[in-house]
Design brief:
Blueprint lengths: L1 H10 L9 E11 L2 E11 L6 E3 L8 E5 L8 E7 L10 H9 L3 E5 L4 E2 L2 E2 L1 H4 L2 H17 L7 E11 L1 H9 L6 H10 L4 H4 L11 H5 L9 E5 L9 H4 L6 E8 L12 H4 L7 E10 L11 H7 L10 H18 L1 H4 L7
Parallel strand pairs: 1-4, 5-6, 5-9, 9-10, 10-11, 11-12
Antiparallel strand pairs: 1-2, 2-6, 3-4, 7-8
InterPro entries: AB_hydrolase_fold, UCP031982_abhydr
GO molecular function, one term: 1-alkyl-2-acetylglycerophosphocholine esterase activity
Protein name: Dienelactone hydrolase
Length: 342
């Protein structure tokens, strides 16, 4: 009951106006030798017929104006980081809602962990994705088009699954490789471990895995059903550098299987740390992905991954709307800071 009360309290504070049109363009940035193919979603005053962008055979796109001129002004910046096997459109549903409220949103493909290039041994180099986030912030703050439009005092990060862990890492959450190895030896089929079952974890650099990747430019963070939560060091969570909202799924898989990534454990201590955490009743881990196309169930069934679209359209839409409401309530202080002029 307490969790539901917190959820309702958050939802009551949400902005409802959607004054901005959504523009979208592709741009490539770099984290060292890692190319970050990036989709930028941004406010625009342009008029015209929106087109579907970011769509795939399994996942629907969102309506946007491709390559429309960006609006002038100073807007909050949000970096969105996808989960293993995801891409720069995986949370386009959230990006759209944020842009409509006056944010610039940046989402990149993370090499070694993205659609068509998801390699467990590479993906377990968790620090790479956190460093990608910092590289994207730096690139946007140096870009001639975007730097004049960004409110550098209102930079946030959001992520799902592995990306959820990455944003926690970017504000100071720490893990230890030895704890992860020991945990996976005890529970090798837990959702946090199963994807990495075939990886020689002793070949991973403990120095880099355990390091602190705090980025002081980040003012707020949102983690959607993040991975690695059981291995986060409690002391580091009490000292994170920015407020954190955790939105946990009730289940990992669709249905009533009690298995989860463990993010709901943070909800039990919500308010006792610089963390707000809620659980979305009836939701599963994959509800934070894009809306599924009509063809998705058949395509995914052939690949043995029907669970990705195992929720009904109404259930996924409900999870999206609940998440959007919670996120907008959480980031309201930064949305209310000096922003763009229409």
């Amino acid at each position: 009951m307490k969790k539901l009360w917190i959820l309702c309290l958050l939802f009551s504070c949400v902005a409802t106006a959607a004054p901005w049109q959504v523009g979208s363009r592709l741009q490539t940035f770099y984290n060292g030798d890692r190319p970050l193919v990036t989709r930028i979603y941004y406010p625009t005053n342009a008029q015209g017929q929106p087109q579907q962008v970011g769509g795939r055979p399994v996942f629907a796109g969102i309506p946007a104006l491709p390559d429309a001129p960006p609006a002038t002004g100073h807007f909050p910046l949000m970096i969105i980081s996808h989960g293993s096997g995801g891409n720069n459109s995986s949370q386009a549903w959230l990006a759209r809602a944020l842009v409509e409220q006056g944010m610039i949103v940046v989402a990149a493909n993370h090499p070694g962990s993205t659609s068509g290039d998801s390699i467990p041994a590479k993906s377990l180099e968790l620090w790479q994705q956190t460093r990608d986030i910092s590289a994207l912030i730096g690139a946007m703050l140096k870009d001639g088009t975007w730097q004049p439009r960004i409110n550098a005092q209102a930079i946030g990060v959001a992520g799902h699954s592995k990306g959820g862990y990455s944003v926690i890492s970017a504000i100071g959450g720490l893990v230890a490789l030895k704890d992860f190895i020991a945990g996976c030896q005890r529970q090798p089929r837990s959702p946090n471990c199963l994807f990495y079952a075939g990886v020689n974890k002793n070949s991973i650099s403990a120095t880099q895995f355990d390091a602190n990747y705090t980025d002081a430019r980040i003012r707020f963070a949102i983690a959607m059903d993040p991975g690695m939560v059981p291995y986060l060091q409690p002391a580091s969570l009490r000292q994170i550098s920015a407020p954190l909202l955790v939105i946990a799924a009730q289940h990992f898989m669709p249905g009533n299987d009690p298995e989860s990534l463990g993010a709901e454990s943070l909800a039990a201590n919500s308010g006792q740390q610089p963390i707000k955490a809620i659980v979305l009743p009836g939701s599963n881990h994959f509800d934070f992905l894009q809306r599924c196309t009509p063809a998705a169930p058949e395509i995914l069934a052939e690949e043995g991954e029907a669970f990705i679209c195992g929720s009904s359209p109404a259930e996924r839409e409900r999870a999206h709307q609940q998440t959007i409401a919670a996120v907008l309530a959480f980031i309201q202080p930064w949305l209310s800071s000096p922003a763009g002029n229409q």
